[in-house]
Amino acid sequence: MQTGFIRIAAAAAMLASAGSAMAFVPWSNPNGSGTNFQWANGGSRNGLFGSPTLVNGDTFVFFPSGFRAQSVGGGSNLVEDRLEFELYAAPGFNITNIRISEFGDYGVIGEGSSVSASGSLIVTNLDNFDVATNAIVTQPGSPITEEGFGNWRGDAAVELVGWSRVKVIVDNDLVAISGQGGIAYIEKKVFGSGISIQIVPAPGSLALVGLGGMMMLRRRR
After folding, report:
1. Is the confidence at residue 196, as pLDDT, over 50?
2. What average pLDDT does the segment 41-67 reach?
3. How far apart are CA 24 and CA 45, in angstroms?
4. Cα–Cα distance between 188 and 63 in angstroms, integer?
5. Is the dihedral of CA 64, 51, 42, 218 positive or negative?
6. I need a surface site. Which of 16, 32, 160, 214 has the fewest CB within 10 A?
7. CA distances (Å), 147 to each of 36, 73, 116, 140, 216, in order?
């Protein structure tokens, strides 16, 4: 009797865990049109990226909220999110490359404290299910162990040939580890530019450039 109960409880826990893992927070504008492309099914696992604003018909700009890992006085904290959306090039256009850039700040105080940012860019061809991937490379490199405060950025890129319908996934992990009496935090933060995805169409191609890095917007406020 007790064994049966344990099995039922374990099964329920597994279903609850699976349901949590399947959670998805749609953007407020999950579908729409830009210049020579359409997007669909936009959202993220935990909603930390927020919803994008389309600027000049070809640029998604994100202003994340609460995308921050922080630890105080010992221990660690992991914060993650998974951004997903689909892109469809207009007739006569192709998607040729996708580059992402993201920005944030961090602080490391005390011996044994560190922070890190990591992630990956995954692009799937929806016509033949080919996959192109690249890891996000951060500057400074992770983990950051030197005491102090600063800014960080992450970049990744994939080159594509003749792709016209794709699914884009961006996985992001932020980790903060603090030593005894120490403090550590790392955040994806708005610098007046936020996080952006720039889509630059040209006849016969649709190039996506830069999740983040809209430096021209940095001083707009």
Report:
1. no
2. 86
3. 4
4. 9
5. negative
6. 16
7. 47, 15, 13, 13, 30
| pLDDT reading at 214 higher than 50 | no
| Tokens standing for residue 72 | 């105080």
As given in the structure block, the two tokens for residue 9 are 């409880």
Q: What is the mean pLDDT of residues 93-111?
A: 89
Identify the residue whose tokens are 């893992």: 21
Q: Are strands 205-211 and 95-109 parallel, antiparallel or unpaired?
A: parallel
Nearest-angstrom CA–CA distance, 139 and 153: 5
The pLDDT of residue 57 is above 50: yes
Task: Give the CA dihedral 183, 179, 175, 155, nearest 10 degrees.
Answer: 80
Q: HEC string of the chain?
A: CHHHHHHHHHHHHHHHHHHHHCCCEECCCCCEEECCEEEEEEEECCCCCCCCEEECCCEEEECCCCCEEEEECCEEEEEEEEEEEEEEECCCCCEEEEEEEEEEEEEEECCCCEEEEEEEEEEEECCCCCEEEEECEEECCCCECCCEEEEEEEEEEEEEEEECEEEEEEEEEEEEEECCCCEEEEEECCCCCCEEEEEEEECCEEEEEEECCCHHHCCCC
Compute the distance between CA of residue 49 and CA of residue 56 in angstroms, rounded to an integer.
Answer: 20
What residues form DSSP beta bridges with 119?
172
User: Are the CB atoms for 122 and 169 separated by under 8 Å?
Assistant: yes
C-alpha 61 chain-centroid distance? 12
